[in-house]
Structures are given as C-alpha cells and as structure tokens.
Amino acid sequence: MQALFGQLLIGLINGSFYALLSLGLAVIFGLLRVINFAHGAQYMLGAFVALLLLQYLGINYWFALILAPLLVGLFGAAIERTMLSQLYKIDPLYGLLFTFGLALTIEGTFRYLYGASGQPYSVPSALAGGVNLGFMFLPIYRGWVVVVSLLACIATWLLIEKTKLGSYLRAATENPVLVQAFGINVPLLLTLTYALGAGLAAFAGVLAAPIYQVSPLMGTNIIIVVFAVVVVGGMGSILGAIITGYMLGVAEGLTKVFYPEASNIVVFVIMAVVLLIRPAGLFGRDA
Q: How many domains does the chain have?
C-alpha cells in the first residue's frame, strides 16, 4: 500500500507539470493557432532564471516564483511581436518550424554555457521536511506543488472563460477584423496570449527546480509527453488540458506499480486509443 500511495503521489506531481505545461500549449494553440514547440525550452528557462536569480542576485524561491514567469513571459512577448507575428498569415507549418528552431537555439545556448549535467536547486526552508500520514510519508514541497499547480490551472481557466479579457481573447481568434473594428488592440491581445503561455511554462519550471535538477535538457525530456496530453485532451481545449494532465499523470503512476515495464509508454498507448475512438480528443470539438 505504501508503494501504491507513493506512486500515486508521484503521478499527481507529474500530472501537475503535465497540466500546467499542456495548459500553456492549449492557450497558445487555442487562441493563436500556433503549435509552440518552444514550450519545453520556456519551461527550462523558468528553472534556469530561478537558479540564476538565486546565484547572482540572492533572490529566493518565493520571489523567483513571481519574477521568473514575468521575465520569461516578457521574452515570449518580444519573440511573438518581432518574429512569430509575421507568420500568422502564411502556412501554419512555418510557425511550427520557427518555434522548433527557437527551442533548439535556446537549449543549445544553455547547454553550451552550463553543460548537459543538472544543477541542484534547494527546497525553500518553509516547505522542507514532510508529514507522516500513517499510510505514507508526504514531503511537504511535493504536496505544495500539487496544490499550487491546481490553483494556477483553475485561475487560468477562469481568466480565459469567465472574464472580459478572456472574452476579448476568444473573440479575437474567431473574428479579429470585427474585434479590431470595436477599437480593441488585437495584436496586443495575441502578444499577451503568447506571453501568458510562456509564463505558465516558466512557472512550472520554477516549481520543478527543487524536485528535478535544473538542466538544459529538462524541457526536452517532458515536452513529448505534454504534446500527447494536449492531443488526448483536445487541441486548444483549456479544460481538457487540465483534466487530462492530472489523469494521465495518475495513470502513469499506477502503471509503475502494476506493470512498471509499460510506464514509459502508457501515455502514448492511451493517446492512440483515444484518437481511434475520438479523433478530436476527449474534450476537443469535431471539425
């Protein structure tokens, strides 16, 4: 039972990162129609920004949790405004290739500067230690990651679906000419959307830094699974990204208990089965 609950916790933690990262991807694809291959690199950037803020400026985890997403979001906004926005009116393949090249450039730069080996980032003292629940030992920081990830996902969903800004964003993707006729700055909305997606990836990176080592390859190791999560949930579905992220994280954790050999492929098996039954994904809209 301890092994079962331990793997369920690991599944929830992995699911938290899957949900946050796939949420950022879903926001960008749903509103900009861009498949952002640079998402894994932005996740890695968030972890590295937190590490560099600590090493060079002495800025601790709590401030990094706010500053890193802001800085990476600003970087994403600059990329979108100066380069990515030039590709919206041509074949979507060019946007995919651009973000793929951007990911390779960012990861290659950090690999050249810091090497391929990871660097540790310590758990904040307020979240160190753990709690004995009787049936398992719960590390406080890992519990914090699950809770704060869920809150961030819910807040993002509420922003997109329940606020005036979210309605502007959704309207701008459906009919940008009409929205601009009402005096709304559509290019600014698109820039803010990409910045939001990049910021969510960076936020996940800061949360991951104390659990996994900060490495230039950390985004590459997770982004393929995250793309599978987005496909299962439905491309562009905000709610689908959140629910599917946690669901597949738990499924992966349970597989490690009952059939460890399949734990690395269970997400892709589920993706194949879902696409055979429902090509649009669990929460996607049929064309």
A: 1
CA distance 283 to 22: 13
Q: Which two tokens stand for residue 68?
A: 């890193």
- Inside any domain, residue 235: no
Instruction: Indicate the pTM of the whole model.
Output: 0.91
User: What residues in the chain have per-residue pLDDT under 50?
Assistant: none
Contact (CB, 8 A) for 225 and 10: no
Query: Quick count: other Cβ atoms within 10 Å of Cβ 250?
Result: 18
**Are 83 and 157 a contacting pair, CB within 8 Å?**
no
Residues 98, 103: Cα–Cα separation, whole Å: 9
- Residue 287: the pLDDT is 52
User: Which residue range(s) make up the domain with 124?
Assistant: 28-221
Query: Exposure string (b/e) for 14-47, b if CB count within 10 Å is 16 or more?
Result: bbbbbbbbbbbbbbbbbbbebbbbbbbbbbbbbb
36 in a structural domain: yes
Q: 181 lies in a domain?
A: yes
CB 200 within 8 A of CB 20: yes
Q: Which of 14, 282, 30, 4 is nearest to 174 (CA)?
A: 30
3-state secondary structure 231-261: HHHCCCCHHHHHHHHHHHHHHHHHHHHHCHH
